[in-house]
Design a protein that fits this description.
Blueprint lengths: L1 H5 L3 H55 L11 H11 L5 E6 L2 E5 L2 E3 H13 L2 E10 L5 E11 L5
Antiparallel strand pairs: 1-2, 2-5, 3-5, 4-5
């Protein structure tokens, strides 16, 4: 190899070095940069697709009532009691575990109670446990167990 190089003129050496440099640049371009740019573009497209799917699932969950449409702020037990009072219900709220609240309530009008539950769900509280039976008066129910969990809280 050394004799091959030594037998070349200065112009040929320069041309061979430029050809080698060009070949290296071309190999770097097609071997590294092009695949890297293609992978980055695919990841950006995948990110945009996943982001739109997450938004769609979140909106569908809110439309179906699986999660609340509003974020809870402030003292949640006070919020529950205030909302129940506005619905005409007398409740006592006890925090059970972080993000979970036990609600004591004896008898209530079924329409007022279920409207209130719907409002609580829209505010970001899910009913995690509920046991009730028909009350003695027409249109009333007796609530044995009621527990709320903040949306996003898992067992």
């Amino acid at each position: 190899m050394n004799s091959f190089w030594q037998s070349r003129s200065a112009g040929e050496k320069r041309s061979l070095m430029l050809l080698a440099l060009f070949s290296l640049l071309l190999a770097f371009w097609y071997g590294v940069l092009q695949p890297l740019n293609k992978a980055i573009l695919q990841q950006q497209q995948e990110y945009a697709r996943l982001k739109s799917e997450i938004q769609w699932v979140s909106e569908a969950a809110q439309r179906s009532g699986l999660v609340g449409s509003q974020l809870l702020t402030g003292d949640v037990p006070t919020l529950i009691q205030h909302s129940a009072a506005q619905a005409g219900l007398n409740v006592v709220v006890t925090p059970a575990t972080p993000g979970r609240f036990t609600v004591a309530l004896s008898a209530a009008s079924s329409s007022a109670f279920f409207s209130w539950l719907d409002e609580m769900q829209n505010r970001g509280l899910q009913v995690s446990r509920l046991a009730f039976s028909a009350g003695s008066a027409p249109g009333s129910i007796t609530i044995a167990t009621l527990e709320f969990a903040q949306a996003g809280t898992h067992d």
